[in-house]
Amino acid sequence: MNTEPVPPTGRATPPGLLLATLVFWGWQSGWLWTGAAMGVLLEAARFIPLRWELTQADFQRIWNFCFLLALAMGIYVFSTNDPGGGAAGTLQASARKVSVSGLDTSMTLLRQLPVIWFLFVAAQFFSAGQAIPLAAISWIARRRQQQGTGMEPEKHINVAYPYFMLCLYSAGIHTNDGTHLYFYGLCGLLTWALWPLRARKAAIWVWCVLLATALTLGYYGVHGIGQLEQFANNYNSQLLARLLQPQTSAEVSRTSIGKIGRLKLSNRILIRLEPLNGSPVPTYLREASYRKYYSQIWQTAGKSDEFQTVVNDVGQENDWSLLPGSTNLATVQIANYLTGWSKESSSAQGLLPLPSGTARLTDLPAFELKKNPLGAVLAAGPGLVIYQAHFGNAATMDEAPDTNVDLLMASNEVSAVDQVIAEMQVASATDREKMLAIQRFFASKFTYTLNIKNEMKAYTNSTPLGNFLLHQRSGYCEYFATATVLLLRELHIPARYAVGYLVHERAGQRYVVRERDAHAWCLVWNSATKMWEDFDTTPAGMDNPAPSFTRPFQDAWSWVRFQFAKFWWSQGQFRKYALWLLIPVLGLSLYQILFRRKRKRPAPAAASAKSVPVDWPGLDSEFYRLETRLAARGVPRLPGESLTHWLERVLVDPALTDMRQPMRELLRLHYQHRFDPQGLSPADRERLTREVNACLAKLN
After folding, report:
1. What's the mean pLDDT in 126-155?
2. Which of 255, 342, 464, 504 fits as disulfide partner to 478, beta carbons 3.0 to 4.6 Å?
3. Rounded CA separation 153/133 (Å)
4. How far apart are CA 520 and CA 288, in angstroms?
């Protein structure tokens, strides 16, 4: 059995404070009338006699309901794409910003905390005990209660002041409008709340000076934190721009040509691809292409190759036309990460790996999309994007060749390239014959390897590419693609250097692309069709080592990370399913709250005394008569107050000095009569009755 509950921890707020605070919160959060209605309802508990007899289990159900409500709101904000967080615009966080990171969702939930926990606070205000059992909200207290002997006092708390602080905190989660209205309101409400709690021994002017000092220090402290935050944001943007650069840059591609040793590539999965509706699997996923080569570096031609904004389709926010008017296209679904950072949009950014001839992108949750004349598409959006690429056109996004740059040769490579052309004897052949001759030349006289040996010492006047063409004749895709572009240009055929990935590894009905599948090849201009074509001269039999025994574990972990990324960046349906699963749970919890309790009006004290049941041991104790008599002297027992604490308040009266020790002894006998399994002996039971009557006689 439980003992008498101890007085609740915490005090009730002054009349009107919660109403003013909720109105202030509603004003700052844009929910003025909601806040006012909530405040009126809580303050009405001071005048409305209606009360519910709520048990610990009831409070625990309400606590669980509020927690589930917070979880459901979080999932709702994460899963919706409607402006404002929902069709009705009831939440104020932008869904696009939510998909950038979890920050805006967190801010939305923090702003709505007074609404989420209102039912729990209202349950305290309209409960008969006007306090909440600590075990209803604390797992530790509940555990101790279960492991206890039953003699420990039941602890209660009053959540009025914690809710007041929660409202002030949530009111501060708003856009800075450049004024100090929030600070002034905060100062006024804090003064109102702290006034009843001031030290009575100190002079009022001392309390006022100390409060003013604290508020002044708080103002300048917040101002300093704001400046520090601005500095940190600027620094973080620069830091992220350096650390999170895309793996492929649209402006520069620094090749590994000339590096000695084995080229190390990871098995990390970067892209997941799924053909839709029986569509073919693209061989290449191109990210970018380049025009100018010098000193092992490929670059664009400068301002002429800068990005231009792509406008999304009218009425379709996530659909983008790259080649308008294209039809009868194959479709693949692509999932890849945006690993760069855009300072302009403060979001993730990266080049999209796309099949050749991609004409349209659908279901791409990009905030901004750009393309350049070399066929690169730059997207700013969430960290993970899943979209459909519609491809199959012979035409591409690449603009027609500019002979000033697409036939440009690196001067230090001309000698080696001319020697190879002389060896192939194709100077008078057609363009198609020249291309076939180059392909046969590399296929028959070169090998693919990732391990470049140090054979440059014997050819000190040769460049790394020249050594590859004339002597070593072994290398990886960057060597073959660069050499092919320069050979074609020297043969007066416009060509460009392209980078991206090969698609070849199947995983069930889908395909995965790893970091080691990164590839470089050549784009060649077909003068007959007036289109750019992929031209890959890298020999077959790529130098890929056998998979290690750890690859299945790495792939499993990559899949887990991918699923989490889908959840975090709102690219899957899990959140919506989770929301639908939570709705029945919320409904069941609300049903238990509403229909398992009956409301009760507090009965008069006299009626309560007459209706005291005698079924439980100790409820027939004469000490209750003594309690009633002492309460009539003007010191009634407070709701939730134990007899021990109440008696000590009573005995402060100087007129009861002689009765202090006898009454304490009577209380001890009363507790033993009520809670000791052995109860009182007949002698002690008679003693309790006799001494209570004696005390009542003295009081009369």
Report:
1. 75
2. 255
3. 11
4. 10
Instruction: Please report which helix (H) or strand (E) contains residue 289, including its range.
Output: strand 284-290
Q: Higher pLDDT residue, 89 or 52?
A: 52
What backbone phi and psi angles, to 5 degrees, belong to 253? Answer: -125, 110
Same domain, 583 and 619: no
Instruction: Please state, in angstroms and rounded to a whole number, the distance separating the CA atoms of residues 41 and 39.
Output: 5
Band the pLDDT of 153: cuts 50, 70, 90: low
CA distance 77 to 79: 6
- Residues near 56 by Cβ (< 8 Å), separated by ≥ 6? 133, 135, 136
Q: What is the pLDDT of residues 51-71, one digit of tens each?
A: 888 888 888 888 888 888 887
Arithmetic mean of pLDDT over the chain? 80
**How many domains does the chain contain in total?**
3
In a domain, 213, yes or no: no
Whether residue 273 is found in the same domain as residue 131: no
Give the pLDDT confidence score for residue 579 in this predicted structure.
Answer: 58
Other residues' Cβ atoms within 10 Å of the Cβ of residue 680: 19
Residue corresponding to tokens 């309209």? 126
Sign of CA dihedral 231, 233, 238, 239: positive
d(CA 240, CA 188): 41
Pairing state between β 340-342 and 156-157: unpaired
Claim to verify: residue 265 and residue 174 sit in the same structural domain: no
Judge if 360 and 488 occupy the same domain.
yes
The candidate with the shortest Cα–Cα distance to 101, out of 387, 385, 383, is 383
Q: In the structure encoding, which two tokens stand for residue 366, read together? A: 């990009």
- Strands, DSSP E only, in 527-677? 531-535, 599-600
What does the block give as tokens for 326? 């294209």
What whole-number distance in Å separates Cα of residue 366 and Cα of residue 383?
Answer: 10
Spatial distance between the Cα atoms of 256 and 262, rounded to a whole number of angstroms: 11
pLDDT-derived band at 7 (thresholds 50, 70, 90) equals low
Structural domain of 370: 252-544
Q: Pick the range with the lowest mean pLDDT from 137-146, 293-302, 393-402.
A: 137-146
Whether 669 and 617 map to the same domain: the answer is yes
- Tell me whether strands 447-448 and 474-475 are parallel, antiparallel or unpaired: parallel
pTM beyond cutoff 0.70: no
Shared domain for 24 and 65, answered yes or no, is yes
Cα-Cα end-to-end distance for the chain: 34
For helices 118-125 and 56-79, give the axis angle rounded to 10 degrees: 160
Residue 692: inside a domain = yes
The residue type of 319 is D
The answer on 683 and 655 residing in a single domain is: yes
Residue 375, classified by CB atoms within 10 Å of its CB into exposed (0-12), middle (13-18) or buried (19+), is: buried
Pick the closest to residue 127 from 8, 280, 296, 304 (CA basis). Answer: 8
pLDDT confidence of residue 606 = 45
Amino acid in position 431: D
- Any residues with CB less than 8 A from the CB of 259 and at least 6 apart, and which? 452
| 515 lies in some domain | yes
Flag whether 99 is in a domain: yes
pLDDT at residue 351 in the model: 93
CA distance 257 to 472: 13
pLDDT tens digit sequence for 215-242: 888 777 766 665 665 555 555 444 444 4
CA distance 138 to 144: 10
**Backbone φ/ψ region at 38: left (φ over 0), alpha (ψ -120 to 50), beta:** alpha
Task: Quote the tokens at residue 45.
Answer: 């508990």
| DSSP β-ladder status, 599-600 and 451-452 | unpaired
**pLDDT tens for each residue of 490-528:** 999 999 999 999 999 998 889 999 998 999 999 999 998
